[in-house]
Amino acid sequence: MLFFIITITIVILDRFSKSMAVKKLNDKTVYFMKQKIQLFVIENRGVAFSLLTGKVKMIIKVSLILLLAMIIYLILLIQNEGQSLLKMGISFMIGGGFSNLVDRILYEGVIDYIYINFKKCPVFNFADIFILIGSLMILISALI
Q1: CA torsion, points 78, 82, 83, 85, in degrees to nearest 10?
Q2: Is 14 a catalytic residue?
Q3: Contact assessment for residue 128 and residue 116, using Cβ atoms and an 8 Å cutoff
Q4: Could you tell me the residue range of the domain that residue 80 belongs to?
Q5: Is 128 considered catalytic here?
Q6: Is the pTM value of this prediction over 0.90?
Q7: Residue 10 placed within a domain
Q8: Which residue among the candidates 14, 27, 103, 112 is catalytic per the annotation?
């Protein structure tokens, strides 16, 4: 149950942050740390680094399949004790992936709004952060 609460919390946090970004940043850019961090809204119609731009229906289908597979795997894992880091990582990825999927269904793209001005870093959102952290948790759990 804990892992599904974590997933739902991530979805709520990301949905709220995207809503606030759209509402408050409306055609504005906000700068932090001498312009190293910038907040502005863009719509990414692809996946990471704008790959597969314009392939929204395919991205939605693949996302649904991957999310379903992760949910089933998490349900199977929860039945056994241990592997908390793996379970947490999968929960993070489901939460981030689901929230981005909602964007794709509603807007045919994902709302991104955080930019770190460093070595061609892409614009991203909280869901992307949780997907990255979840991936790292899964990797670490495989190594320990």
Answers
A1: 100
A2: no
A3: no
A4: 53-144
A5: yes
A6: yes
A7: no
A8: 112
